[in-house]
Amino acid sequence: MKAEERAFYFDYAATAPPFDEALAAQLETARARFGNPSSAHRLGAAAHAELERLRGLLAARCGFQDGRVVLTSGATEANNYVVHGAMRAHASGRVLVAADVHASVWNACRRYPERMDVIPLDSAGRILLPALAAAARSDTRMVCCSHVGSETGVVQDVGAIAAVCERRGILCHVDGAQALGRIPVDLGAIACDFYVFSSHKFGGPRGCGGVFPRSAAGVPLMDGGGQEGGMRPGTENLPALAGTLAALDRSAAIMATETQRLRDLTRVVLSELEGSGARFLVNGDPDKNAPGFLSLSFPGLDAHALAADLAVQGFAIASGSACSENRPEPSRAILALGRSLSEALGTIRISLGRSNSREAVGAFARALAQTVRRHAEQDGAL
Q1: Which CATH code, of 3.40.50.10320, 3.40.50.300, 3.80.10.10, 3.90.1150.10, is assigned to 3-15+254-379?
Q2: b/e map of 118-141 (b: 16 or more CB within 10 Å)?
Q3: What pLDDT score was predicted for residue 170?
């Protein structure tokens, strides 16, 4: 990605540009430790030793001292591993899932429709503990939630949620794919049974993620060798793990300054829109959301058309709805906030990151305001 493309890239929630340090660590490890960690010879033993060293460092960085890190290809696989493993292990139990979870969690839970219940959100996108307690049943075996909402950026109090689950003897599964590397994560203070992460969300390599497990998830999803404690067969991606750790360290080093900077930049966008007179709604609280996340609903407008128009102008954002057979479908996560169908279909997601300067964000904010105004005039939504 060219420098100018990075400057106008506002889709960090989808994937973050890799850190140079992560790419360097990945390449160095691929060259120096190319042996298969499962091989008995010297090169294999060296690779295995490095794998376990990096695994331990990753756990330590996250404050996780209760078990091993099960490495996967990313958060989607890790979420499926947790959900299906737990549901198979508790064949008659129920799963309680937050209304805004990522599709990999939601669709995995939907495989068990007669055993699935939903935790509602309040209008700010939060899981309220009384609502969680009311939704849990005597046969609920697991609660699934996101640490940071992938569409809204809303940060959940997963420590309190996990504590409720622990008191009631319910497994707690937290999808931290949008949290780790973006906000402080101390698993020593979050008593969840499973915490999922994905490297590319914070500037690490794609194809690497995993789960920090305190409990056994059940049977593995795939058949193969005995890697990852028998829970995830396949030759481990040691170079990607090295890149992941380098990216996490770099993210931690800049987190404090980036947090305030990104919050300031979201205010630039909001101020421009407010000054333009555009009709819009903010989903969540920009001052409390994960830094850089901004979910905006424009009632009566087509989010896909807005995103496509901005893309032609050189700005990369995401719409907040899915498209099936060229028919837009409203976002489940946005509807869960109490938004109308029109508001949900007009929702875009802006997610800022380290490559976005104030000048670039200002240019984007002006383009967004002008584009919204133009579409509103065309669609009669003024």
Answers
A1: 3.90.1150.10
A2: bbebeeebbbeeeebeebbeeebb
A3: 97
